[in-house]
Automatic annotation (TrEMBL):
It is found in: Cytoplasm. Signal peptide: none annotated. The lineage of its organism: Bacteria, Pseudomonadati, Pseudomonadota, Gammaproteobacteria, Pseudomonadales. PANTHER family: COLD SHOCK DOMAIN CONTAINING PROTEINS. GO terms for cellular component: cytosol. It comes from Pseudomonas saudimassiliensis. Residues 12-76 form the CSD domain. InterPro entries: Cold_shock_CspA, Cold_shock_domain, CSD, CSD_CS, CSP_DNA-bd, NA-bd_OB-fold. CDD domains: CSP_CDS (cd04458). This is Cold-shock DNA-binding protein family protein. The keyword DNA-binding applies. SUPFAM superfamilies: Nucleic acid-binding proteins. PROSITE patterns: CSD_1, CSD_2. Keywords: Cytoplasm, DNA-binding. GO terms for molecular function: DNA binding.
Length: 77
């Protein structure tokens, strides 16, 4: 354990930001199909202060982290 496993490495998914705590730098994305996934600000594409807004549409890759599914390479649509 401890390794990060890419689930469908090239499979980009879309979803909607369920909530994102800007102060803590994390939140959850509701996928179009499947369970919600955790998102950390470091997984968001961009420079400077990276954040997401509730209801925002995003595209991302899902990975299996130590505590469950998480979004990586998150891009706002």
């Amino acid at each position: 354990m401890g390794d990060v496993e890419i689930v469908g490495m090239s499979d980009r998914q879309t979803g909607t930001v369920k909530w994102f705590n800007d102060a803590k730098g994390f939140g959850f994305i509701q996928r179009e199909s499947g369970p919600d996934v955790f998102v950390h600000f470091r997984a968001i594409r961009g420079e400077g202060h990276r954040t997401l807004v509730e209801g925002q549409k995003v595209e991302f890759t899902v990975t299996q982290g130590q505590k469950g599914l998480q979004a990586e390479d998150v891009n706002a649509l």
